[in-house]
Amino acid sequence: MRIFLSALMQVRPSISIFPVLMFLAFSCVASSQLIAQQQLAVQPYTELREPCAQQYPHREVLFGDTHVHTKYSLDASTQGTRTSPADAYQFARGAAIGVQPWTEEGKPLRTLQIDRPLDFAVVTDHAELFGEVEICQNPALSGYGSWQCKLYRNFPRTAFFLFNTQSSLAGRLGFCGEDGERCRQAGLRPWQEIQQAAGDAYDRTSDCQFTSFVAYEWTGASANLANLHRNIIFKNEQVPRLPLSFIDTPSAEQLWDALDRDCVNVGTGCDVMVIPHNSNLSDGYMFSILRDDGSAITAADAAQRSRLERLVEIMQHKGSSECFYNPLASADELCGFEQLPYNRFSGKFVPFLRDEPTEKSGFLRDVLKEGLLQEQRLDVNPFKFGFIASSDTHISAPGAVSEKGFLGHGGAGVPAGAEVPQGLPDDLEFNPGGLAAVWATENSRAGIFEAMQRRETYGTSGPRMEVRFFGGWQLPADMCARRDYVASGYNNGVAMGGDLLPTMDEVAPVFSVFARMDPGTANQPGMPLNTVQIIKVSVAPDGTSTEQVIDVASSGATDVGVDTTNCKSYGEGASQLCANWQDPNFNAGQSAYYYARVLENPSCRWSQQLCVAAAVDCKKPETITPGYESCCSADHRPIIQERAWTSPIWYKPANNREQAAADSEESRLP
User: Fold this and answer.
1) Of 59, 61, 48, 42, which Cα lies nearest the Cα of 118?
2) N or C terminus: which one in the chain shows less Cβ crowding within 10 Å?
3) At what angle do helices 657-668 and 18-30 cross, to 10 degrees?
4) In 3D, which of 549, 545, 546, 512 has the Cα closest to residue 534?
5) Mean pLDDT across 46-63
6) Residue 368 and residue 385: Cα distance in Å, rounded?
7) Are strands 545-554 and 643-646 parallel, antiparallel or unpaired?
8) HEC-encoded secondary structure of 58-85
9) What string of DSSP letters covers 205-265?
10) For residue 26, what pLDDT is reported?
């Protein structure tokens, strides 16, 4: 298709190709049923394994956690985490795990277990200090007796700041040697163990019950120490000899080039995905439109970024990155959900670095809008992200995202001490994190990775609600009543993460959302659904933009809430919601993206549940026992409304339809 279109552009200028392009675009839409069948084909395996016996022709939702830290992350180890990648994968499959503090005999004083196993998990330890931590823990290695390692073993909190600050400046500690080679070599062992743990946990039998990936975190920082962090996930066991850390590749641009050099273009079958996270803490630097030399990004730069960075993490332990909320200026008050009070993580610890977030801090709704603007200039969208969520646990506990029984994820690196701390187990502004959901043809590395590449994903703030989102020009009006709802969506439109091609008909696109509540378990039933919304952001050719939040489905319940004195919910809700919505303000000449947001009924946040369990009554000071002072803080948010965010569906206007048709055709091929 791309070759044909390229050749077509070589015809004489006197011959108009616009009708031909229109016909091609229309033909793509008209033949969507055949394309859908091709798209649903199982991707070939790139590693030795048995074929999965269970196939999902119309895809099945799989829940996982793509952001997990174990003892091999510096910040996790300095706050007492002793559990390994192998332990993390066992936990994801339903086993109990030990949580600090530990006795002198090495037994944990707390344990944790999730109520339902995950379908997949990804350990993403910080690569920057693999070698440093290994040296400081192994007496046989040169450097173990250095003053930095003594500091690490005796004053872990101080080491947390020293080691992290040095790596954030893309530097090595002195005991690594002048060229840092000593620490690079020491980092080989933990990297090999991480690979081994992922390989051992991966179910290669035909049962296909659990999938793991080899991965790590690239922990980059801007000049002002704002967050540039990215998780690097490999499709199979073909990976670089050592992870490419921020110390080795001290910019995102250098990281992408090195991943292409050492993975994608090596010819071994290596493939990789880069997932930015915590853009809410990036102070606007995460998604720069400038190259390292200060010049504007090019179309080639945007294409490389779009190819490698297919997804972005919209929610995790350190807050939501969906959109910014200012009570004096924001129309969408739901953007205030789990919003942190600072715009970079260093501001949490250093008062003079603490700035409040703004609409320019890196929130995704604005980032995706910037992507539409860049697409007008480059004809390539560098920020065409699908959405996922994850936990960012630092206690080897993937999927521990329930508000009930939350033990904290340890993201601030505070040492555990000798006893279980009294009071709330985590800082008030943090939360249990979320889950990644993918619509896959099977539970395998190939199936999940391909789902991520086509962005047929969504994120939740913790619950396992099922969400479908389709868009198209020909979606049936009675789609929600159809037994073949899913087939109708694929045959007549595109799923979340897809592109809407321009059409010859002067009609507005139709979007369909289906959501089913998390059924929960016998001990912890799921929460009913409250509302389904569609968020639309459009950009005109002159650069002006509009933003809309539309309620498209509701349970209809009017008296819904939660009693914060006992955390009992009240009011009705829906077990499932479905709606079709046609955009009444559609303008074929404007770029746009649409995504769905699904809201549960309100419930008690983790902190309020613990405050209630401790019988704290803020009107009675004598009930506020040590460690529970935050229950009565003005910053305490006692109520949460759990939610899900689908990946967007994009629309390109007619002046870009040639590239849109070529890109869409290419993305649909099996």
Assistant:
1) 61
2) C
3) 30
4) 549
5) 96
6) 8
7) unpaired
8) CCEEEEEEEEECCCCCHHHHCCCCCCCH
9) STT---EEE-EEEE--B-TT--B--EEEEESSS---SS---TTTS-SHHHHHHHHIIIIIT
10) 37
CA distances from 123 to 319, 452, 523, 549 (A): 20, 17, 28, 35
Number of C-beta neighbours around residue 242 at 10 A: 18
Tokens encoding 522: 């016998």
Distance between CA atoms of residues 538 and 547, nearest Å: 7
Q: Are the C-beta atoms of 511 and 471 separated by less than 8 Å? A: yes
Residue 415 near residue 408, CB atoms below 8 Å: no
pTM summary value: 0.91
Residue 515 near residue 598, CB atoms below 8 Å: yes
Per-residue pLDDT band at 310 (split at 50, 70, 90): very high
Tokens 């510096």 sit on residue: 74
Cα torsion angle, 469, 475, 479, 480, sign: positive
Tokens of residue 275, six digits: 């997932």
Token pair of 449, please? 């990775």
The string of pLDDT tens digits covering residues 515-557 is 999 999 999 999 999 999 999 999 999 999 999 999 999 999 9
How confident is the model at residue 658, as a pLDDT? Answer: 53
Distance CA(477)–CA(500), nearest Å, equals 18
Cβ burial of 337 (10 Å; 0-12, 13-18, 19+) is buried
| Rounded (10°) angle between helices 18-30 and 32-39 | 60
Q: How far apart are CA 372 and CA 545, in angstroms?
A: 10
**Alpha carbon distance 197, 214 (integer Å):** 9
Q: How far apart are CA 547 and CA 107, in angstroms?
A: 53
Share of the chain above pLDDT 70, in %: 91
Beta strands across the sheet bearing 576-582? 494-495, 466-472, 510-516, 576-582
Average pLDDT over every residue of 48-76: 96
CA distance 575 to 515: 8
How, if at all, do strands 591-600 and 529-539 pair?
antiparallel
Q: Distance (Å, rounded) from C-alpha 147 to C-alpha 384? A: 46
Q: Is 633 left (phi over 0), alpha (psi -120 to 50) or beta?
A: beta
The two tokens of residue 243 are 């992870």
Task: Residue count of the chain, please give it.
Answer: 670
- Rounded CA-CA distance 313/311 in Å is 7
Confidence of residue 349 (pLDDT cuts 50, 70, 90): confident
The percentage of residues in the chain with a pLDDT greater than 90, rounded to a whole number, is 84
Confirm if 521 and 410 have CB atoms less than 8 A apart. no
In angstroms, the CA 412 to CA 394 distance is: 9
Q: Percentage helix, strand, coil, to 5, in the chain?
A: 30, 20, 50
What DSSP designation does 564 have?
Answer: T
Instruction: Tell me the C-alpha distance between 246 and 230, whole Å.
Output: 10
Residue whose token pair is 């009011």: 571
CA–CA dist 257, 238 (Å, integer): 18
Please tell me the predicted confidence (pLDDT) of residue 7: 34
Provide the residue type at 399 as one letter. Answer: G
**Pairing mode, if any, of strands 510-516 and 576-582?**
antiparallel
Q: State how far the Cα of 156 lies from the Cα of 413, in Å rounded to an integer.
A: 9
